Amino acid sequence: MSVLAPYVRARLVTEDEILRAVLARHSLSGAEKFVQEVLWRTYWKGWLESRPLVWTHYRRDLDAALARLAREPDRARMVAEAVEGRTGIPAFDAWAHELVEAGYLHNHARMWFASIWIFTLQLPWEIGADFFMRHLLCGDPAANTLSWRWVAGLQTRGKTYLATPGNIRRYTNGRLDPGSRLATEAHAIDGPAYSPGKLPELNVDVRSNESALLVLHDDDVGAESLDLGGLDIVGSIGFCAAEGRSPQPVSSDVTAFAKAAIRDALGRAPHGAPDSIVAAGDPYAPALALIASARACNARAIVMPFAPVGPVRDAMTAMQPHLAAANLPVFEIGRAFDATIWPFATRGFFNLKDKIPSVLATLGIHDKNSRDREPTLL
């Protein structure tokens, strides 16, 4: 999308805010591609929410692929060369170094990298997706997992993405050399089909005077733009699950960015202390920390922004029995933006693309031209 992606991922700035700012200055037709890129991220999240087994199976298959490396030293060596930028494919190696050093890759580079990883190097796509999750500051479970599946031919069944030397040279203005080793064919990887299930309920009614502990987490720290209704927020705390992105070590830059985002938000949250952050891990210890924090401020419930499929959701699910045993209910508050767009994400993106004007209108987001056409009262 843009270098805004890490901040959008944490919702330090929301998709709604970005679209309103852009369309206040540009027409929808003039900013069409940018608007679509913003909505792709929301689309991917909605798609995965209706098919959570995709994430579960990805993590299961990642564990199996990593275990296989222990039994196959030649393949382990190839993976090490790829992640360390030592394959001898100049462009690929440059991207591997950029990812590790900057925590960022342009979207085109991500697609080329994934294609070379899968079809030229013939390495497990799950380990490549995990490499991204461990190093991308904006590592989003839905966007990352589903994009790698798309390149491999698993997402749109049988449709793959093949990186070609001409395409790479063209869009890097000749700056990067892809070499002469790139695969010339991309045969789709086989895998199960997933049918959409029921989307989660995002409009949870917790509008009461209930005293609550507000928990801000990796996926959403935007307390200011969250509709908390009439809840009495008596304390705020952070929950960081960045290290849960992978069974392998996660970049210190990734964990530092996630904690900095939470710390920044806690500085503005009701009764928040910037250093009050609980880290995910064994579910018992973080659950005890949340329970202790709730009791310290006499909170009778926990309220948090909705956690989509991914590490935060996994950690909260694991902690749920301990929180329930402490008689501490957890309420998750969704956002109107997601609730409006996710129902269009059960099929392909074009199902949403064709309805972008009406979807934005439903959200009260109007472009510059539509406002210019509005009559004025004299």
What topology does this entry show?
Blueprint: H1 5-9, H2 15-23, H3 32-49, H4 53-71, H5 73-83, H6 90-102, H7 107-120, H8 125-135, H9 141-152, H10 165-171, E1 211-217, E2 232-240, H11 252-266, E3 272-279, H12 284-296, E4 301-305, H13 311-325, E5 330-333, H14 336-341, H15 350-353, H16 356-362, H17 368-372
Parallel strand pairs: 1-2, 1-4, 2-3, 4-5
Helix pairs in contact: 2-3, 3-9, 7-9, 8-9, 12-13
Number of strands: 5
CATH architecture of the largest domain: Orthogonal Bundle
The SS-based structural class is: alpha/beta
Q: Which CATH C-level class of the largest domain is it?
A: Mainly Alpha
Helix content: 40-55%
Cα gyration radius (Å): 22 Å
- The assembly state of the depicted protein chains is single chain
Please state roughly what percent of the residues sit in beta strands, choosing from under 5%, 5-15%, 15-25%, 25-35%, 35-45% or over 45%: 5-15%
* Spatial sequence of strands, sheet with the most strands: 3-2-1-4-5
- The separation of the N and C termini measures 42 Å
What's the mean pLDDT score?
92
- The tally of domains stands at 2
* Uncertain segments: 372-378
